[in-house]
Amino acid sequence: ATLPPHFGVRLDPDHPCGAAVDLSLALDAAEGGAALDLTLETGEHRATAVLADDFESGLAGWTVETPLGASPWIPTTARAASPTTSAYAADVATASDTRLVRDLGVLPPGARLRFRHLMDSEDGFDGGVLEIAVDGGAFFDAGDRIVKGGYTATIGTSYGSTLAGRPAWSGYSSTWRDVEVDLADLAGRAVAVRFRFATDRAVGDDGWYLDDVALESVEVVCEDARACVADEDCDDGDPCTADACDPTLGCTHALPPPPPEVAGLRVALVDPATGTVRLSWDAAPDADVYHLYRAAERDLSDLVRVVEGISDTSTLDAAEVAAGGVLHYLVGAEGCGGTAAP
């Protein structure tokens, strides 16, 4: 379908709530074309907190296991995402393996684990992973469930790390990173999580900091577009749209067409010494702002926007032009419905 510059997408009211929509957009222009594939989420994701731990009470509620070495997880105030305390595992120059374990209990529907972390370790040799256990079973890697902030390296196999050959978080992150883990398919099952940090027998560094661990129940809510009685029920808060209640489709939010081409462009020389000119033009219906373009070539091949967002119907421009030279000016109007060709 051919669409105006600004457009909306309306789904069938029976489209499954939360199911993504794949779109393919193609742009055709005189200068060439472009294509873009998009995946749009549907519905509003509403999260309810089930567990939240910022480690301000230390490691209460957690279990620390250190089967190798003598550097367990500890609370620290050296670095924290919020407010002052985080959990910390040191990157020592000897082989070590320490685990921070939390029983999350039976997971709610739409379960999602979130946390923030800062890694400062020997890149590719010392690092951390997230592991989970289900219904009391063995722990296994949760990397394929990470939907944001995934692993950054693979641990080397040369110096005896217990995570050798595994993808992990490793190296240096100058800022706190956000991680999200999708556990929705485990709703109704008992789950434990384990943050595991391992070092090899060589070079050490600072370590791994963990903060703001949260378990949420995420519900996807879709409002029925057909649930309206009057136009007033359909106000979307956008001053550009014409909101209406259709008895079949429900709420509709139509955008106006782009403003027409600007007419009546006039040029007056203001200062011969600087080449400053004043340009003015007739107001275009439905235009909110105007943009001024300038070109030196007759075919406008070097056309550039020189002034943008003009709220009035006139503006000044100062441009150097060689003796006998000519400048070409164009004005384009922009409104809720898009931008008109200059």
Secondary-structure topology with pairs:
Blueprint: E1 21-29, E2 32-40, E3 44-53, E4 63-68, E5 74-76, E6 86-90, E7 96-106, E8 111-120, E9 127-134, E10 140-141, E11 146-148, E12 153-154, E13 167-170, E14 177-182, E15 190-199, E16 207-221, E17 242-246, E18 250-254, E19 266-271, E20 276-280, E21 289-295, E22 304-310, E23 314-318, E24 328-335, E25 338-339
Antiparallel strand pairs: 1-2, 3-16, 4-7, 5-6, 6-16, 7-15, 8-14, 8-16, 9-10, 9-13, 9-15, 11-14, 12-13, 17-18, 19-20, 20-23, 21-22, 21-24, 24-25
Describe this structure in words.
By secondary structure, the protein is mainly beta. It contains no helices and 25 strands. The chain has strands at 21-29, 32-40, 44-53, 63-68, 74-76, 86-90, 96-106, 111-120, 127-134, 140-141, 146-148, 153-154, 167-170, 177-182, 190-199, 207-221, 242-246, 250-254, 266-271, 276-280, 289-295, 304-310, 314-318, 328-335, 338-339. The strands form 6 sheets. Strands 3, 5, 6, 8, 11, 14 and 16 form a 7-stranded antiparallel beta sheet that branches. Strands 4, 7, 9, 10, 12, 13 and 15 form a 7-stranded antiparallel beta sheet that branches. It has a 4-stranded antiparallel beta sheet with strand order 22-21-24-25, with no helix packed on it. Strand 1 and strand 2 (32-40) form a beta hairpin. It is elongated, with a radius of gyration of 30 Å. The two termini are 24 Å apart.
